[in-house]
Amino acid sequence: MQPVHITLTLVGLLGASSAWAADCTNASDQASLNQCTSGDYASQDKRLNQVYGDYRARLAPQQKQQLKAAQLAWIKFRDLSCAFESSGVQGGSAYSMVLSGCLAAKTTTRIDELQRLADCPEGDLSCPALAPLSRAGSGR
């Protein structure tokens, strides 16, 4: 089974890496703001793929399928929700900034959710998989 690879939903984001070199803390024009938020989303998407892949690797086969189904549903939710949330500025120069900002925020929240699942302590019955043993080892 191949892990779900979350892909960028906007073709325009693929070319944003060269624009990342811009100083996003001092971005003052709409094009720079758009590029910076696109870069932030791309960075969060990359982090999500890493956390998802690392966590999925620890799961049993049936759990992997369940996580994949949940992740695909979450991606659809995220994309539809952000399309709605940014619809007020659709067609305007700030659209990609608002959309990318929404995608980045929801992706960051999903990273946190997956990380909490990945770090579940022993004894937490709501955890699909326990946190891995530390390198120093523990009594488990």
What does this structure look like?
The chain has helices at residues 30-56, 61-85, 95-118. The protein has 140 residues and is mainly alpha-helical. The protein is built from 3 helices and no strands. The chain has a domain at 30-118: Substrate Binding Domain Of Dnak, Chain:A, Domain 2. It is 54% helix and 0% strand. Helix 1 packs parallel to helix 3.
Put simply, the count of helices is 3
CATH architecture of the domain at 30-118: Up-down Bundle
Shape: elongated
The Rg value, from CA coordinates, equals: 18 Å
List keywords for this structure.
3 helices; mainly alpha; disordered N terminus; 140 residues; Substrate Binding Domain Of Dnak, Chain:A, Domain 2; elongated
Walk me through the topology.
Layout (H helix, E strand, L loop, with lengths): L29 H27 L4 H25 L9 H24 L22
Helix pairs in contact: 1-3, 2-3
